[in-house]
């Protein structure tokens, strides 16, 4: 019977810790980008040409803020998936400790 176990207990625990940190960090960044925090203006991908050629520059920048915020939320969701896989690996490792081969 093939096993779904593909990483050890330490790697799985590390994956859980990194996933928790990633979810917290990226969710907070997503919230701050969605709130259009002025501190994060350097991380919004626009150039001076975009501002000069646009008739309504603030709306363009606000749209970019929202897009970056959505990207942060998507990355946080991916970290949730990685954390779920890591949690399954921890449980499979615990179960394998009690099995006699």
TrEMBL record:
This is Ribonuclease kappa-B. GO terms for cellular component: membrane. Pfam families: V-ATPase_su_f (PF23489). Belongs to the RNase K family. PANTHER family: RIBONUCLEASE KAPPA. It is found in: Membrane. It comes from Triplophysa tibetana. The chain crosses the membrane at residues 12-35, 68-90. One of its GO terms (molecular function) is RNA endonuclease activity. Keywords: Membrane, Transmembrane, Transmembrane helix. It is a multi-pass membrane protein. InterPro entries: Ribonucl_Kappa (IPR056552), RNase_K (IPR026770).
């Amino acid at each position: 019977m093939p096993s779904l176990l593909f990483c050890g207990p330490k790697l799985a625990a590390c994956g859980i810790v990194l996933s928790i940190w990633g979810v917290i960090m990226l969710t907070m960044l997503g919230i701050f980008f969605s709130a259009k925090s002025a501190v994060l203006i350097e991380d919004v991908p626009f150039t001076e040409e975009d501002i000069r050629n646009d008739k309504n520059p603030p709306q363009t920048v606000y749209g970019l803020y929202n897009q970056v915020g959505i990207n942060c939320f998507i990355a946080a969701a991916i970290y949730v998936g990685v954390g779920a896989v890591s949690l399954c690996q921890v449980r499979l490792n615990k179960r394998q400790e009690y099995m006699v081969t």
